[in-house]
């Protein structure tokens, strides 16, 4: 009987020394450590803002306590100019970023882009003009069983060095949709699952195939202890490439939009949600979907070359779209299958005029198209298009909130909100009512 190939004894020393060392040597110079720090403010006692308390004790009361918060992760150089991709949650809330190369050199870095939805961020190294960039592969071509390497520095703070470590495994599954949260707060759909050991600090590092090409960005671990138990996940590199290419070509990540909102399944578990289908709840008037003929009640069954079985599949397809491309969509309507071609457009708020407030807050007037696309209950207001981390941390406003009232003044546009903030801020604290997830909240702050 012939001996199976996998059980044969090596015939030479070279054959016996089967190793991934050449791949690691090729990739390691492009893998970095990301060290980040930021000041975190504790909760301020609401009593300190009470007018009676302030009348008796004076001033603004005791300030909120501050503490320095630190974070450590990995990253990968994707452009020779010094652009680095890492996870957004690694640098969330951080103001000081340092990069350590594998040769022990350290450089400061600035945050060029944050994309919480994909849990990806792009950093730019300072003080260096050219660095070795890694070759990005194709995540569409990976298959279950492919050999992969997870590269990063999982315990950089403890070990005190910058050389990346390597763990080896296989692609355990593809197209994984994670209903819960991983390390970050992004939308974790169409993920690559691997049994290559991923531990805290690997986040942002590359998942590499046997040819040394990056096929994913390590992002999250699901385990009771937070350590590796053979269940690691990576963001497909094709999604990352879209973001990096947008940044290099347009200076920002474009927000693809087709104008379809799916029904929110009323179910108790992720397993049930995965079986309900992707039913169109509404189509935004004037949107690409509306112009193509998609209607509320249609069931999306295919988008591009991918089948759509549930809202997770649809969300995964949206994350990979590029503005300007044609998206073929197949729907089931009244027992028949219909095919449409949707020309992907920019999200409506992207092209809307922006009003900058407090130098760190960009507002957009709430239009009917924006309201329907985002499912906003208010009929008028100012959409928070972009907000700095300081404003988010100290005031509590987030991207996507809709300001509907400032002080006693209802606002119906971005300009009205800006004028009201200036007017009330000149007299004292500014009280703001805003909508978030169809609920009304309030916050207050003082202009400095």
Question: Keywords, please?
Answer:
alpha+beta, seven-stranded antiparallel β-sheet
Structure description:
The chain is α+β, with helices and mostly antiparallel strands and 448 residues long. The chain is 19% helix and 36% strand. The protein has helices at residues 13-16, 21-27, 51-57, 88-91, 156-159, 237-250, 270-273, 288-292, 311-319, 348-351, 368-374, 389-394, 414-425; strands at residues 31-41, 66-79, 83-87, 96-100, 106-115, 120-125, 147-152, 165-176, 191-194, 206-209, 214-221, 232-236, 256-257, 260-262, 278-283, 299-303, 306-307, 326-333, 336-343, 345-346, 355-357, 361-365, 382-387, 402-406, 409-410, 430-436, 439-445. It contains 13 helices and 27 strands. The chain starts with 12 loop residues before the first helix and ends with a strand.
Draw up the topology in text:
Blueprint: H1 13-16, H2 21-27, E1 31-41, H3 51-57, E2 66-79, E3 83-87, H4 88-91, E4 96-100, E5 106-115, E6 120-125, E7 147-152, H5 156-159, E8 165-176, E9 191-194, E10 206-209, E11 214-221, E12 232-236, H6 237-250, E13 256-257, E14 260-262, H7 270-273, E15 278-283, H8 288-292, E16 299-303, E17 306-307, H9 311-319, E18 326-333, E19 336-343, E20 345-346, H10 348-351, E21 355-357, E22 361-365, H11 368-374, E23 382-387, H12 389-394, E24 402-406, E25 409-410, H13 414-425, E26 430-436, E27 439-445
Antiparallel strand pairs: 1-2, 1-4, 2-3, 3-6, 4-5, 5-6, 7-8, 7-10, 8-9, 9-12, 10-11, 11-12, 13-20, 14-15, 15-16, 16-17, 16-18, 18-19, 21-22, 22-23, 23-24, 24-25, 24-26, 26-27
């Amino acid at each position: 009987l012939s001996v199976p190939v996998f059980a044969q004894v090596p015939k030479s020393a070279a054959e016996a020394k089967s190793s991934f060392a050449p791949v690691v040597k090729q990739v390691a110079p492009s893998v970095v450590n990301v060290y980040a720090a930021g000041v975190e403010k504790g909760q301020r006692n609401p009593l300190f803002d009470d007018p009676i308390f302030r009348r008796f004790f004076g001033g603004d009361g005791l300030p909120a306590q501050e503490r320095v918060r630190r974070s450590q992760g990995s990253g990968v150089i994707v452009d020779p100019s010094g652009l680095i991709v890492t996870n957004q949650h690694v640098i969330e809330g951080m103001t000081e970023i340092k990069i350590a190369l594998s040769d022990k050199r350290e450089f400061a870095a600035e945050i060029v882009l944050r994309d919480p939805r994909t849990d990806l961020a792009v950093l730019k190294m300072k003080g260096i003009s050219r660095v070795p960039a890694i070759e990005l592969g194709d995540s569409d071509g990976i298959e279950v069983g492919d050999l992969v390497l997870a590269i990063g520095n999982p315990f950089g703070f403890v070990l005190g060095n910058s050389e990346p470590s390597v763990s080896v495994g296989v692609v355990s599954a593809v197209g994984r949709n994670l209903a819960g949260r991983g390390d970050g707060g992004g939308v974790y759909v169409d993920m690559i699952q691997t049994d290559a050991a991923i531990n805290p600090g690997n986040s942002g590092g590359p998942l590499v195939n046997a040819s040394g090409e990056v096929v994913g960005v390590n992002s999250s671990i699901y385990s009771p202890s937070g350590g590796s138990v053979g269940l690691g996940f990576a963001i497909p590199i094709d999604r990352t490439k879209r973001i990096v290419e947008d940044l290099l070509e347009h200076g920002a990540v474009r927000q693809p939009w087709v104008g379809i909102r799916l029904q929110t399944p009323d179910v108790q578990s992720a397993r049930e949600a995965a079986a309900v289908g992707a039913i169109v709840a509404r189509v935004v008037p004037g949107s690409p979907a509306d112009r193509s003929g998609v209607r509320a009640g249609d069931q999306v069954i295919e988008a591009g070359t991918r089948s759509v079985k549930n809202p997770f599949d649809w969300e995964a397809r949206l994350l990979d779209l590029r503005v300007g491309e044609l998206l073929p969509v197949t729907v089931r309507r009244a027992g028949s299958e219909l095919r449409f071609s949707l020309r992907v457009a920019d999200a409506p708020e992207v092209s809307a005029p922006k009003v900058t407030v407090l130098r760190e807050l960009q507002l957009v007037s709430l239009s009917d198209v924006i309201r329907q696309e985002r499912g906003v209950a208010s009929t008028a207001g100012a959409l928070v298009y972009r907000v700095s981390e300081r404003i988010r941390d100290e005031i509590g406003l987030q991207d996507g909130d809709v300001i509907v009232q400032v002080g006693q003044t209802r606002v119906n546009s971005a300009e009205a909100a800006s004028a009201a903030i200036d007017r009330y801020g000149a007299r004292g604290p500014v009280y703001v009512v805003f909508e978030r997830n169809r609920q009304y909240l309030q916050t207050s702050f003082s202009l400095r």
